[in-house]
Specification:
Layout (H helix, E strand, L loop, with lengths): L1 E3 L4 E3 L13 E5 L16 E3 L12 E7 L2 E8 L4 E4 L13 E9 L5 E6 L8 E5 L2 E5 L2 E2 L11 E7 L4 E6 L2 E7 L14 E3 L15 E9 L5 H5 L31 E3 L3 E4 L4 E4 L6 E3 L19 E3 L20 E7 L5 E8 L4 E7 L7 H11 L7
Antiparallel strand pairs: 1-21, 1-23, 2-20, 2-22, 3-17, 4-7, 5-6, 6-17, 7-16, 8-13, 8-17, 9-10, 9-16, 10-11, 11-12, 13-14, 14-15, 18-21, 19-20, 23-24, 24-25
Length: about 375
């Protein structure tokens, strides 16, 4: 069966990803037919329905859309509807004025102001908007150029640090910088409520919102740097004919084709190069996929496996589960298709810190794929070294 192992952090973006930051991802909403966060300590989101409407006649609805060239689950909301996180101080933020919030969404219309985030429980006009396509912290700062167009997905990320500095990013690029230490427009008020997309209901102009769709909302308990925000950008669009994509966002699901994995041996999650990553101890932690038919390539079909990997250390660990060949040393697996499948293969890092690819032809029952590969590397190591 395919499995993914490492002595450090690995996550699957176009198969596997690495390290992002020390800030803690405390909520991650992906709208896969539910309002739950993949970080289970965060409360579920709930709907905000227009005061003039009722549900089910005027509900938010789940669907699918193409987001950055990938078919993705989304939540669609009509005008004047939105979402609310309540309370934010329950497993999400330890300080209502220090955070990173990232939202991937699109609006159907962008004339004048369109609300993205409200920090004041719907009682004030201040907050984060798009105004004719420009990012705005109202009533303090506006980005210098129009970057967003209607009916196109965009990633907006905002951060606020302990000194009160507010930063706003569009698709990974910084557009708004503002000292919010005095005005505190971007501080979540004492109600501990964070509202998305629905405009304020009092305290100034109202109804400044748009219908649209949202594919993801992430919240970090801390302010990311500009470099770290850039790493939140979605992975490179998948190439044609991609079969599977495990992005490690709080689960082992295959977001491309449904070859979902299971976490074994204590596999956990940590900050990765893009979003979250699988955190593996290098001993018995595994993400196991099974043996799906569409991952059985045989010995003649071409295939590619792409991985981002971060190792906590590089050396020659005494892995009790491996065969340590003379002159080769113990290895660290990255991706393995086996152990005894006729189309078995392996991508691994040897103790000399080279990466190797091993193809195991035929159905062997005496030795597992890992031992056969290492014996093969001893016989002709140059054939497989990367």
């Amino acid at each position: 069966m395919p499995s993914f192992t490492s002595h450090a952090i690995a996550a699957l973006c176009l198969f596997i990803s690495g390290n992002l930051s020390a800030q803690v991802l405390t909520a991650d909403y992906r709208f896969q037919n539910n309002y739950d966060s993949s970080v289970v300590t965060a409360p579920a989101l709930t709907d905000l329905i227009s005061p003039a409407q009722t549900c089910p006649a005027y509900c938010n609805t789940f669907g699918n859309d193409t987001v950055f060239n990938v078919s993705t689950p989304v939540l669609q909301f009509p005008q004047d509807n939105g979402l609310v996180l309540n309370p934010v101080n329950s497993g999400v933020l330890s300080n209502n004025g220090i955070y990173t919030i990232g939202v991937i969404f699109k609006f159907q219309t962008l004339p004048s102001y369109r609300r993205i985030i409200d920090f004041k429980s719907g009682t004030a006009d201040t907050g984060v908007y798009l105004s004719n396509g420009a990012l705005v912290l109202y009533n303090s700062a506006t980005s210098s150029s129009v970057t967003v167009t209607a009916d196109n997905y965009v990633e907006v990320v905002i951060t606020r640090d302990g000194s009160g500095m507010f930063h706003g990013y569009v698709n990974g690029k910084l557009y708004v910088t503002n000292d919010d230490s005095t005005n505190q427009y971007a501080v979540i008020d004492g109600n501990n409520i964070l509202r998305f997309f629905q405009d304020n209901l009092s305290g100034g102009a109202t109804g400044e919102d748009s219908a649209g769709s949202v594919s993801r909302i992430r919240i970090y308990d801390g302010a990311l740097t500009a470099e770290q925000v850039a790493l939140l950008r979605p992975c490179t669009p998948p190439p044609p004919n991609m079969i599977s994509w495990w992005d490690a966002e709080g689960n082992a699901n295959d977001i491309q084709d449904g070859n979902d994995g299971t976490l074994q041996g204590g596999t956990a999650f940590a900050a990765g190069k893009v979003g979250q990553a699988f955190s593996l101890d290098g001993i018995d932690d595994v993400v196991a996929i099974g043996n799906p038919a569409n991952l059985q390539f045989g010995t003649t079909l071409p295939f590619s496996a792409d991985a981002w990997v971060y190792y906590d250390s590089l050396g020659d660990p005494a892995d009790p589960h491996s065969y340590c060949g003379s002159g080769i040393g113990c290895d660290m697996e990255v991706v393995r298709k086996g152990p005894d499948n006729s189309d078995g293969w392996m991508l691994l890092k040897q103790s000399d810190n080279h990466f190797w690819v091993c193809l195991g032809a035929g159905r062997y029952r005496v030795r597992p794929l890992r031992e056969r590969c290492e014996r093969g590397l001893q016989t002709n190591p140059a054939l497989h070294q990367l």
